[in-house]
Batch of 3 targets.
Target 1
Amino acid sequence: MARARTRSPSTRRSGTAKRRVKRLAGAQVLTLDARRIPLIYKKNNQAHRIILRLDMSAGNVVVVLPRRASREQGRHFALTNKAWIRERLSLLPEGIPFAPGKQLPFLGQPHRIRHRPKARGVVWCEDGEIHVAGRLEHLARRVEDWLKLEARREISELAHDKAALIGKKVRRVRIRDPKTRWASCADSGELAFSWRLMLAPKFVIDYVVAHEVAHLCEMNHGARFWRIVAELTRDVKKARNWLAENGLDLHRYGRGDGEPALRPTIA
Ligand SMILES: [Zn+2]
């Protein structure tokens, strides 16, 4: 579970220490254009200089302070490197909220969200659109709940079928929204999957399920494990490439505009 990091600027302490640094109000937040980005200070006695790091998963800027550097020096350093922070942030994909008119790739196919305030029912998929009944303020939650339900149905069935092929039993399938993994397998035989997989093409879902089911036999990624995966699904390489290329994109959905996405892996 690695957090995304980017190469960051750093400076010798003496560079900033010479200047007088004013104590500013609200010292924990960096204002950048319209955004307010939290500054998190971390002391590191091994550090020789102040280092800036973007914590993509938390959406904040970490200021690593060597033993003798003060927070004011750290803040000053962050302020003088606003351009670097702005550039790194601009590289992050922006969130796509569940809102009327927005598109989401249900099973890999673009589907537009349509608000149907007067319709009966909750959420249904029809003619390439996802229709959501009820009040607007419930729309985002309803779309997410619906994706979780679809994931439970689709993934549970796949997992039980694949497990039966190798004479194993799935104890339980859980649907979650982990930050850094698509799925996981516990010793107890319990499998967990991200509902975001419902935004990927079917061959990708099939691969991720096969991968976790294969862990019911082999709790490692050795040659035997991959042989079992190959028995359970067809497009292993294609699916892994797809996830590497598009995985981060799936984390944009259901998040507010400008919220950073995260890079997950498969366990
Ligand atoms: Zn694995």
Target 2
Amino acid sequence: MSLPNSVIEADVLIAGAGPAGCSAALALNGSGLSVVLVDKATFPRTKVCGDSVPAHALISLEPFSHGIYDDFLEELPKVSFRSSVMILPNGNRFEFSWPLPGYVTERRLFDDFLLQRVARQTSTKVYAGYRIIDYQRVEGGVLVKTRSVDGVAGTDFLARTVIGADGAPSLVSRKLGGQPPDQEVVGHAVRGYFSDVVGLEPGTEYIFYHPRFFPGYFWIFPMAGGWVNAGYGMAEKYRKKSGVPLNVLFERFRQEHPVVREMMARAKPESDLGGGMVPFSAKKQRWAGDGWLLTGDAASLVDPVSGDGILYAVRSGLQAGLAVRNGRQHEYSGRVEELFWRRMKNQRKVMSLVTRMPGIISLASLLGRYPWFRRALMKGIW
Ligand SMILES: Cc1cc2nc3c(=O)[nH]c(=O)nc-3n(C[C@H](O)[C@H](O)[C@H](O)COP(=O)(O)OP(=O)(O)OC[C@H]3O[C@@H](n4cnc5c(N)ncnc54)[C@H](O)[C@@H]3O)c2cc1C
């Protein structure tokens, strides 16, 4: 195949400038490789999320972007939490504390903060507002075709390696990996911002279960400025069985759960209820191949129990950047399996057990009195 006349050549093209893509760019900094980072959005852009960012994500980035944790604390509006309160299906309250804090910070601002660091601290060339529409294998690499936001033909790129950080569902995974998204192992979640929510304890995030809405869960995460991020998510196969759209389930949960109803009785919506896909780490897949690697949501690296993916996006993005930098792309799939996928195996087992026997969650409230159980729980999650 002949190349179009104007093509920008790069050693590495990172598709997607979310946490996974920015982390990959930071890990490639100083490698001597030419790197382009392409995103369809112009930043700051909205990203539908619970906005809960663990300290571990910032700690993981620190060696690649010195001072990032302090700058995050100084620059971004946020609320930190150290405790999680779960209201279990039987109504019992189960509270536990984390060894390190988590932060609720708007993803629109957090992702922009990461991208600005990439733009300032690395030689990565950022192309924002370019939607990638196709990947074609050509001599010398992969031809990446883009359109600008207004649909006009955009710049084309020729890259030796493509790092897929394009979220879920990933075009890189489909086109270069030959892997369509597996509807059996994805979830969906909706979230909105609300003001005037009452009963919030400082430094605490809330998770609610309800027997009629199981195995999904509802969350209320306090944010800066007195708002909360409230949402509801569920594995798609169970949602489908219910036959009810997720936004309707969100509203029903809100009305039917006695504690949520009370906390949100006078809540004022401050945004639309946005929705997004949550690709759980469930089935083993290929995470890399000839000239491509997958990271973050594009690699389905979301914890099947909590639905958290930011930490894994950051860590897998860093691993992908390092693998390319060190010429060890062939080892990347094995690293992902060892570092993330196997680790989430226990989570998958917990999730399928809990789905079959919801009462087991309530048992956790009894076991939660014992420090060994709490320690095991933390270890499982982090
Ligand atoms: C409702 C909801 C709540 C969640 N809550 C939490 C939470 O509280 N904590 C947590 O840890 N995780 C949460 N998650 C999961 C978390 O949002 C993801 O795991 C995380 O965003 C993954 O980061 P990423 O960089 O892999 O992908 P993304 O953040 O999705 O970034 C992908 C980027 O690729 C770009 N892109 C996509 N396609 C193209 C294309 N064709 N061309 C160019 N660019 C493209 C997009 O514009 C985007 O900027 C939640 C998810 C949902 C849906």
Target 3
Amino acid sequence: MRESFVIREVRATTVTVPLEAPLRHSNGAHWGRFVRTIVEVETEDGLVGLGELGGGGSSAEAAVRAAGDLLVGHDPFQLESMRFKICNPTASLYDNRTQIHAALEFACLDLVGQRLGVPVCDLLGGRVRERVRFASYLFYRYAAPSGAPAEVRTPDELVTHALELRERYGFTTHKLKGGIFPYEYEIDCYEALAAAMPGDSLRYDPNAAYSVAESLRIARRILPLRNDYLEDPTWGLGGLRQVRGAGIPLATNTVVVDFEQLATNVLDRAADVILLDTTFWGGVRQCVKAAGVCDTFQIGISVHSSGELGIQLASMLHLGAVLPSLGFAADAHYHHLADDVIEGGKLAYVDGAIDVPTGPGLGVRLDPDKVTEYAELYRSLGGYRYDRDPGRPGWYPLVPNQTFADPERALSPEQLYGESGRWLHDSAMPGTAG
Ligand SMILES: [Mg+2]
């Protein structure tokens, strides 16, 4: 019946899509752009399914093609056997293809949905909601080369930025990405956000930059605010366990990213909320399975963002659509993008939410002109080092970090960029990061 519905070819194209401004985080920065590899899986009968992954650029392209060679002749309906063909647990010790598998799984779900004429969420149990709510994702930012948007560093700048996002997109939940500055300063900023938007909920994510003792002080200080949770204040299940009990729920997207870790967290609770990432976990279906475990043990869930374009965003929307216990707004970097590679441009936020696509498969298609444009931009700019900060040349963090950025130090575009708009401290590094 499905003789012609087998994989003929797997293609990979790396693109660079500009962000409105460079985003700072505890390990370094997103240098004003996202580098993502677009995966196209084509069947013998000419259907094309879409996937996406980050963190590799041209090396990700090569890895996807190599994995794709293993799938020629594979039936996209056979998702479990594909998982073992690509990333069985012992082979993965030598050749970790978890995120590559995730991109291939998005593409196969897209193919199956197109073949059957149903959206991906209908393959996962069916939607229990039509729209997925998102949090505003607030970053300390460097100014863009033109000076607009301007730097976001002080409490006033952060509040202004948050209110603009709230007005533009309708967000009523706000996540502050931190771990850049000493925690006392960042909590001043967080409290300023709470004061400016008293009815909204908040979450703070310093990406494990602080010690257990600092995390306990953070938890106690922000306890009176409308927190959803405190996300990864410190490193490790053992670290989080020591911060639990301070009265604020803890969330993680760093140390519960597979079933072994989830089992450990069930047996000896460290995190109260698991942020499910469709790439980190190896696909949408793994996240649905993990959500079932979480529901069983009354562990909270939400949807994590690892820096997506529209294809991965669609995977997050279909995941969010089918999780009955999704009580928190999802995370997305998406509103920081200046553009997208999908037909029709960026998916729209209405009242802080994005509609779950209703078309067959993932419900998004590529805009070939945009793919060409942004593949050329990738070739022109190359990769960037996610774990380096171009405004702090030579610095790298320890865990917990001990050398934070100076909150009093403003950096002008002239101090950051050369005449061409390129970073002054951008050593050549073709093909890396994302
Ligand atoms: Mg996080």
